[in-house]
Queue: 4 jobs
Job 1
Amino acid sequence: MAEDKITPTSNSREKDLSKYKENVDLSDVTGKYRVIDRTKKVVIKLGFPTEAEALAFAFDYFEKKKKG
């Protein structure tokens, strides 16, 4: 019997995703989400249909940026 279990790693990733929520914005013009680097005041990538996809991209982008 296969059961879906929530692992601590998925919970920590979810918490980390919420940390980047301020870097995800809904565009008034296109109606799609975009990822913004607020320190540089530039749009990193736009055109995400869902906020979850934009948050996942923001997480990957900013975590890679932190590591160098």
Job 2
Amino acid sequence: MYGTDLGREEPIDLHIQMGTHDENGKIKPEVEAKLKTIPQGAATTVWCATSPLLENIGGVYCENCDIAEIDNGQIEHRYDEPSTIREFSLILLTLTMPIDFGK
């Protein structure tokens, strides 16, 4: 995401290895052109939380304020009900765990 410091802890060699940065550690222009601004990056999350199109639907992958299309099998986005229920249960459990602030 453009305009954030999300990658600050990652070694630059990782970015070079992934092909997003050149050998000098500078982000490649073609990669930078595809980065989203902070509002653009947040838009899909807000859309997912408020869209009536997602009512009674779960476990779908969304991007660019829509349900993503499957891209010819290169990356599969599929709904796996048992896995999704298990993951959601773990999230709820984590959110309801008491936090010890050392008081």
Job 3
Amino acid sequence: MVRVHAAGVNVLDWLLGEGGFEHFPDVPLPWIPGWDVSGVVEVVGDGVGGFQQGDSVYGMVRLPEPGNAYAEYAAVPAGQVVAKPPLLDHIQAAALPMAGLTAWRALVDEAGLQRGQRVLIHAATGVSAIWPCNVRRPSGRTWSQPRPAPTGST
């Protein structure tokens, strides 16, 4: 059980807020939205290892089932959260999971990007495009954004 400190808001959350429940026809109403969560472990379930009460965690939970991240407390599967890095606050951590996993899946899992390869990211304005620009060095991969064209005359 995680006491929620922050929850991310993504396109999927917006879609459901606009009434897009036809994409989730088997979910009984009412339900609590939100999948990206950051918080503190309050209770550790029987047989769960790797976490203890008071640990800060974050992750994307239960998709496509209701994640309940917009609640004060959320029962989350231990395999769907990880320790929150101390350099991130809960708001920053809650903003990462869906966008980060979307970018990772597209570039690494689907495109097969390997260590040492390069990819050019044009117009990195959405979260899933900005994310890989900010984490390229720790992964050993290189992503580049184009530089603006020079202006003025010579």
Job 4
Amino acid sequence: MTRIDPPIDPNDESDEMLMALADGELDETTAERLWQRIETDPALADRFALFADTRHGLQAAYPPEPVPDRLIATVMAGTPASDPVVVPFRRRLSARPMAAWAMAASLVLAVGLGGFLAGRAMPPAGATLQQAAAALAQVPTGARLPCRAGRWRGRWPAMTPTWVCAV
């Protein structure tokens, strides 16, 4: 068992202290103080019972087994049981892969920015401005046109030449 090194706060009621008490890892003075608080505090007693039950359940599930003589002999001899296997470290990444990633990111950025700027310079798909002007010249001012997508929404604003067709 491993003992907890001092200094230990005698008023500590943490889960770590309760588990150390259940495992028998506390010095006698600290354990006695913690036992006195457990006897007077039902909530603390319930918390301790959980750790004690866990310890007893694990001891029942995994009983101690004798250490094999082969292992004892190997430890006492101080030599490994077989030839050691030495695995070399992986090589460190050089700056080249980072430069390649930076170049790829720059290429993606350049293509994306070029496509955006090219798209802004192109006219919108569909009718050209001349075709739209010709179609509007045939409609009298203030006339209502049928809306294929639903109904017209809003009023004719005095200075805004756009309509919204609500679906």
